From TrEMBL:
One of its GO terms (biological process) is DNA-templated transcription termination. It is found in: Cytoplasm. The keyword Cell cycle does not apply. Keywords: Cytoplasm, RNA-binding, Transcription, Transcription antitermination, Transcription regulation, Transcription termination. Gene3D superfamilies: 3.30.300.20, Nucleic acid-binding proteins, NusA, N-terminal domain. This is Transcription termination/antitermination protein NusA. InterPro entries: KH_dom-like_a/b, KH_NusA_2nd, KH_sf_prok-type, NA-bd_OB-fold, NusA_N_sf, S1_domain, TF_NusA, TF_NusA_bacterial. It comes from Fonticella tunisiensis. GO terms for molecular function: DNA-binding transcription factor activity; RNA binding. One of its GO terms (cellular component) is cytosol. It holds the Pfam family S1. The keyword Disulfide bond does not apply. Monomer. Binds directly to the core enzyme of the DNA-dependent RNA polymerase and to nascent RNA. Residues 136-200 form the S1 motif domain.
Amino acid sequence: MNTAELIEALNQIVKEKGIDKERIFKALESALVTAYKKNYGTSQNVKVTVNRETGDIHVYAQKEVVEDVYDNLLEISLEDAKSINIRYNIGDIVDIEVTPKDFGRVAAQTAKQRVVQEIREAEREIIYENFIEKENDLITGIVQKKEKQNVLVDIGPTETLLAPSEQMPNEEYNHGDRLKLYVVEVKKTSKGPNIVVSRTHPGLVKRLFELEVPEIYDGIVEIKSISREAGSRTKIAVHSKDKNVDATGACVGPKGIRVQNVVNELKGEKIDIVKWSKDPGEFIANALSPAKVISVEVDEEQRSAKVIVPDYQLSLAIGKEGQNARLAAKLTGWKIDIKSESQAAELKEKDQ
């Protein structure tokens, strides 16, 4: 490859990959300085320029203008400097061309290696910049294959792994499946950006509702908190800033279409949409939905609540393996103790 072909190839790559052209040339010139010194065994201060249009390469020895020359490799007298250009003064740097005849061959070998390396680094930086903006947001990926317990996902300009801990237990991952993924974190590493994605993160549910519910996207309805056991059940507490807008109704949508779209994306995960309240008792009662609550007694200091439900609602309030009560506690941030009417009455009798 001659230098003209190199320039043509570089221009094509820069255009295709959106890389800064000047960055590639600077890296190339730096590599050529090293190559010149290595091949021609000099301790001169040199600079190499590559013409951005033609690819012509020039090597210059850089010498400082001094009154008395002690080192011919690094210094030039004022008299000699002025014979090159009358404007030179003491302390200036004079560029004297020293381009070897066969330097084009050396340059081509060096250029290929360094340019490939620089393009790789630039691509990694572009990917990092692209995804750091998507941290805590949704992206779409296509499943490529399973690697042991990990799932390899194509996310556009790169690939990432969906780790076992970030996979939903009720979900199969097959080649070609399109997935919405939550970007948990984007980290810089020596091998390029590490993009941590999740299907289990509560943020996934939050972002899906933002996509489905215009009132959330517009800031009229606010998601106050989410508690999730991925693949099984999620509780989401919502609040409307406009008294004319029903927060839970907005999230459910006409004929339940909005919440159903989220459920479908989460492969059937159950979703309870509850109304947030600044009154802890009311919020806790709402959080235990779909169970009906008779009363809530709160202890502000301990952030704990005693809840009484009808006898026939006890198992519903607690939920299978305690899930409903557990999610309600996580949603509200309060410790919740649930008793049936009969249990509460018995305890009252014992206390009397």
